[in-house]
Amino acid sequence: MNNIRNITLIAVVGNHFELGYQNRLLCHLPKDLHHFKSLTLNHTVVMGRKTWDSLPIKPLPQRRNIVLSRRQQLTLSGAEVFNSINEILAATQNEPELFIIGGASIYQLFLPLANKLHLTRVLSDFRADVYFPEIDFNAWQLVHEAKVPKEKENPYNFTFQTYEAKATID
Ligand SMILES: NC(=O)c1ccc[n+]([C@@H]2O[C@H](COP(=O)([O-])OP(=O)(O)OC[C@H]3O[C@@H](n4cnc5c(N)ncnc54)[C@H](OP(=O)(O)O)[C@@H]3O)[C@@H](O)[C@H]2O)c1
Hints:
alpha/beta; 4 helices
């Protein structure tokens, strides 16, 4: 459907690919928030309506904010609302990279189209009610990894990982 631009999923997950609980993130990691900001700033971010609702500051500043919702008449200050993935792809066809920032249902929708994954793997178990979709890691190549030890402000060990989709032979 789209072979040139990057469709990039970015998520922070626990040991079991936990994503969130009661419409909140698993934990507060300022270093991960900084990482998220440095990657997404001046780009387009795509999120589900529940993730939009969960944002403490909205829209995410200095980014084009796109929200997916089934509600036809929904308007959100500072965001563009679309009702289908195809509408989003059409409206962003000139964007070099789309950052898919969650939540679970939106990762599930975009994973088959994605060619890049930024995963922050938090080395802990969390209570969760939403999970990242199952990934076939045979189809992805780890291209970057950086371990970050816990300290006072960031109380979990975690690892930044970047994966790129392996080329497929038709
Ligand atoms: N760990 C992370 O990196 C991370 C990142 C983001 C979010 N999260 C967490 O994930 C959780 C939220 O995830 P979620 O899966 O419950 O909600 P979500 O994906 O953020 O939003 C779900 C909403 O998106 C809309 N939607 C979903 N599929 C659609 C489709 N095919 N067509 C049109 N609209 C569609 C619907 O909105 P309407 O109801 O308005 O129709 C649906 O209720 C929270 O706990 C949040 O903190 C974690």
